[in-house]
Structure formats: structure tokens, C-alpha cells
Design goal:
Blueprint: H1 4-10, H2 20-35, H3 41-63
Helix pairs in contact: 2-3
Length: 68
């Protein structure tokens, strides 16, 4: 099994098998959860998690080799 250090040595930050769409769906789920709780620390945490998943999806897509 590969670890992060091995990937960095190879010049790869993310495994090619990661699916950005999976993380976009998780972001949506956390945003939906945030909308279902009152304003406050719990909602803020849900929004922060959603933003993290969105950033992860963006990073995966940005690091994906172009097919053209």
C-alpha cells in the first residue's frame, strides 16, 4: 500500500483513482446538513467540512492529467 511520502517521492500528490465527483457529493451532503441546523458552531463546522471537500475535489481535478 502506498503512503503520502511514497507519492511525494514519485512526484504524485494524489492517486489517479480518486474521484472528484465523490467529494463534490460529500460537500453537497455537508451543505445540506448545515442548512438543517441552527446558526452556530455546528453549522459553521458543517460549512467548513463542505468547503474542505470542495477544495479537495478542485485539487483532484487540477492534478488530473489532461486527456487531450
Amino acid at each position: 500500500m502506498s503512503n503520502v511520502l511514497d507519492d511525494k517521492r514519485k512526484g504524485t500528490l494524489m492517486p489517479d483513482s480518486w474521484d472528484a465527483e465523490r467529494y463534490r457529493e460529500r460537500a453537497k451532503q455537508w451543505r445540506d446538513r448545515a442548512a438543517s441546523v441552527p446558526e452556530g458552531p455546528q453549522r459553521d463546522a458543517c460549512v467548513t467540512i463542505a468547503e474542505g471537500y470542495e477544495q479537495l475535489a478542485d485539487t483532484i481535478e487540477a492534478n488530473r492529467p489532461s486527456s487531450g
